[in-house]
Design brief:
Layout lengths: L1 E5 L2 E4 L4 E8 L9 E8 L6 E7 L5 E3 L7 E6 L4 E6 L8 E9 L2 E4 L3 E6 L1
Parallel strand pairs: 2-11
Antiparallel strand pairs: 1-3, 3-8, 4-5, 4-9, 5-6, 7-8, 9-10, 9-11
């Protein structure tokens, strides 16, 4: 499984970005028990979970810090998961990583930088 993120960049406070993560070597609709989503890591901080989708029941999770501002979605036909980020704040600045948990395996993308200027 390979995960490739895109869509990061530099944006001003209050702006928006949409991140994309394309999965290869794995077909979303072929399995019914995995989670896919996003983590982030800011300089000097631990990696934290931002949002994910559970394929098992379709539920979504959002960290308190992004609830109401970020929206996760997936396009199974494209094997792609998105993170729509609105009302961005300087504290959202981080490298954003796509993550998939499938069985005992944990897959990561290479990350995409999001920088929010004040």
């Amino acid at each position: 499984v390979q995960l490739v993120e895109s869509g990061g960049g530099l944006v001003q406070t209050g702006g928006s970005l949409t991140l994309s993560c394309v999965a290869s070597g794995f077909t979303f609709d072929d399995y019914d028990d995995y989670t896919i989503g996003w983590f982030r890591q800011a300089p000097g901080k631990e990696r934290e979970g931002v949002s994910y989708i559970s394929r098992r029941d379709g539920s979504t999770y959002y960290a308190d810090s992004v609830q109401g501002r970020f929206t996760i979605s997936s396009d199974n036909a494209k094997n792609t998961v998105y993170l729509q980020m609105n009302s961005l704040k300087p504290e959202d600045t981080a490298v954003y990583y796509c993550n998939m948990k499938f069985g005992a395996s944990d897959y990561w993308g290479q990350g995409t930088q999001v920088t929010v200027s004040s």
